[in-house]
Amino acid sequence: EADIYQTPRYLVIGTGKKITLECSQTMGHDKMYWYQQDPGMELHLIHYSYGVNSTEKGDLSSESTVSRIRTEHFPLTLESARPSHTSQYLCASSQASAGNTIYFGEGSWLTVV
Amino acid sequence: AQSVTQPDIHITVSEGASLELRCNYSYGATPYLFWYVQSPGQGLQLLLKYFSGDTLVQGIKGFEAEFKRSQSSFNLRKPSVHWSDAAEYFCAVGSGAGSYQLTFGKGTKLSVIP
Fold first, then answer.
1. Is residue B52 very low, low, confident or very high in pLDDT (cuts 50, 70, 90)?
2. CA distances from B14 to A21, B41, B77, B85 (A)
3. Beta carbons within 10 angstroms of residue A30's beta carbon
4. How far is A65 from chain B (nearest CA, A)?
């Protein structure tokens, strides 16, 4: 099973602030993902990456941006947070050679006030 | 486009009773199917998955699921529920090995009565 670490787990921040949610995985998985989940709702894919220097937008439009400079690291950035960004953000990874099963981190809860 | 329907938003069962959570999917080719569980304030933990082969798959924590192509279903079952099984359960379908992404259902919240 993959080890995926997300920081911070919980963050309360003021409107207009810049934030970066960190995600790291130690299994060398090539694919990484960011999902957004509002309370009591399903998950929606907002970003994914096939490997270093690869980033794609997911099904749900998001004002956030991502980067993949290293295989193990896939941070998500919001340049100017707004209350509408309040949500849970889940990072995940998978590897084709491991059956492409997607493994999730514990999530980052973001509240913008 | 692929989609997943979980018809039951909330299910309540007594501890020790059997459980079945329903999942129907829509996908043009052979699907990759998953069940995940999410405890409050936590990420998603993989319970089991189906890629091919035997249509009855065994997972962790005593869960199993059966893939029925004719019914486009992948229902999750457990013969005897424990109080610690109370959580949110998500069914998901994957698009395949190439451009691999998951589409999730809206989830079923399971409550367990002592």
1. confident
2. 39, 24, 15, 11
3. 17
4. 18
Tell me if chain A has a CB within 8 Å of the CB of B25.
Answer: no
Residue B51: what pLDDT?
84
Instruction: In whole angstroms, give the CA distance from residue B74 to residue B80.
Output: 19
Q: Is B59 on the interface with A (CB under 8 A)?
A: no
Q: Do A99 and B100 touch (CB under 8 A)?
A: no
Q: Return the biggest CA–CA distance within chain B.
A: 45
Percent of chain B having pLDDT more than 90?
A: 72
pLDDT band for B100, please (50, 70, 90 cuts). Answer: low
Q: Which chain A residues have a beta carbon less than 8 Å from that of B46? A: 1, 101-103
